[in-house]
Amino acid sequence: MKCRFCEHQLEHTFVDLVSSPPANSFLTQQNLLEPEMYFPLRLFTCDNCFLVQIDEYKKAQEIFSSDYVYFSSYSKSWLAHAKKYTEHMISRFGFNEQSFIMEIASNDGYLLQYFKEKHIPVLGIEPTLNTAEVARLKGILTISDYFGESLANKLLIENMTADLLIGNNVLAHVPDINDFVAGLKIVLKEQGIITMEFPHLLKLIEHVEFDTIYHEHFSYLSFNTVSKIFASHGLEMFDVQEITTHGGSLRIFAKHFEDKSKSISPSVELLLNKEKEAGITTSAYYDDFQQKVDMIKYNFLDFVLLQRKNNKKVIAYGAAAKGNTFLNYCGIKGDDLIQFVVDASPYKQNKFLPGSHLPVYSEERIKEYKPDYIIILAWNLKDEIMEQLSYIREWNGKFVMCIPQMKIL
C-alpha cells in the first residue's frame, strides 16, 4: 500500500483495531437476521510525509449513501459553533451580499443557513441525498455530488467560484486528498479564502482518541502534513486556530500562493514548531499508541463487568460513529453489559448499532429505565449531554467517561 499523498510505501502500522462494520451503517430489525459486513480498521503512518491513513477497504460511495444517518443540526453545541464561525468570518473579512460562500460537505445546511440569514449568496455541495434534501427545504442551493477536480472544473465553467470556501470535517473523509485539494485551487477566487476544520492528529494521540478512527475517515491530519499537501497544489496557509471541537481540532486558513494581499500570521510558524517539538515528524512518536488504546479497552471492560456482577443498570448516550468504533473494539455484543443507547436524532432511533447490535432509543427511555450509569460515547458533547440529562442525579445516576481514561462524574 502506498501513501495517498506522496505515494511512499507504507510499512509502519499506527494502530490496528482489527475490523468492524462501517460506523454509520445502522441496522433495522430485519437486518439483524442477515449477515453483516466487516472491514479491516488498521491505520498506517507514512514515514515520509507523516500522513496517518487507512486503506480504502470500504469505498466512499458506499459509505456516503443516499440514506446517511448523520445530521449536523441535531447538536445544539455544533449549531452554536457554526453560528459563531459565521459571525467571525463576516466580521473579520467583510463578506456581504456581493460575496459567494461555498461549503463542501454542507450536510443539512447547518452552517450555510447563517450566511443565508445575512443575505449572502451560498452554495452547498453534499453527496448524501437525504441530508442535501433537508438543506434545500431550508432554501439553500445544494449540489448532490462528490467534490474534486471534475466538479470544480464544472463549477468554474458556470462561473461559480468562491470568496469563501468552507470544509468542516470533510478533509479527513476524502479518499483522494490530492484530487480534492486540487479542486479547491480551481474554485477559489484570486483573493478568496479557504477555511477547513478537522480533528488534530496531535490531540488524537495525546488524548488517545482512538474512537475517532473509522472507515469514513481516510486521513488523520497534522498541520505540518496538511501544509505540505496544500503547498503541493499552490495553496498557502496564512492562519491557523486551535479549537475545541471533536476533542481538539484545527481551523486552517489558506489562500493562493499568488495572493499577496494577506499577511502570514505568526500562529502558522508557532504551530508548525509546536508539532515538531512534540515529535510529530518522527516515526518514533507513533510507536506506543496501540498500547494506550488497549489499556483503555481493558479498563472499560473491567468497569462494565463489575457493574453487571453488581446488578447495576448501564446504558450509553450518543449513537455516534466514535461510539461504534469504541464498542466494537471493546467487543460489546448484545445488551448484557450495556442495555441500550440513547440519541437525539430520530434518524437513529428505533434502529440498532452496527456490530454491537445495541438498540437506539429516544431520551424518554432514560426516565423510564432510571439507569445507574450513563456512558457518554459522544464525549465531544459531554457538557451539553450532562446538562441535558442532569435529572439522573434525582435517582443517584452517574455519568461515565472512558477516554482518555475511565472517570465517573
UniProtKB/TrEMBL annotation:
<dbReference type="InterPro" id="IPR038576">
    <property type="entry name" value="Methyltransf_Zn-bd_dom_put_sf"/>
</dbReference>
<dbReference type="InterPro" id="IPR052356">
    <property type="entry name" value="Thiol_S-MT"/>
</dbReference>
<dbReference type="Pfam" id="PF08484">
    <property type="entry name" value="Methyltransf_14"/>
</dbReference>
<feature type="domain" description="Methyltransferase putative zinc binding">
    <location>
        <begin position="3"/>
        <end position="64"/>
    </location>
</feature>
<dbReference type="InterPro" id="IPR029063">
    <property type="entry name" value="SAM-dependent_MTases_sf"/>
</dbReference>
<dbReference type="GO" id="GO:0032259">
    <property type="term" value="P:methylation"/>
</dbReference>
<dbReference type="Pfam" id="PF08421">
    <property type="entry name" value="Methyltransf_13"/>
</dbReference>
<dbReference type="GO" id="GO:0008168">
    <property type="term" value="F:methyltransferase activity"/>
</dbReference>
<keyword id="KW-0489">Methyltransferase</keyword>
<dbReference type="Pfam" id="PF13489">
    <property type="entry name" value="Methyltransf_23"/>
</dbReference>
<protein>
    <submittedName>
        <fullName>Class I SAM-dependent methyltransferase</fullName>
    </submittedName>
</protein>
<feature type="domain" description="C-methyltransferase">
    <location>
        <begin position="245"/>
        <end position="404"/>
    </location>
</feature>
<keyword id="KW-0808">Transferase</keyword>
<dbReference type="InterPro" id="IPR013630">
    <property type="entry name" value="Methyltransf_Zn-bd_dom_put"/>
</dbReference>
<dbReference type="InterPro" id="IPR013691">
    <property type="entry name" value="MeTrfase_14"/>
</dbReference>
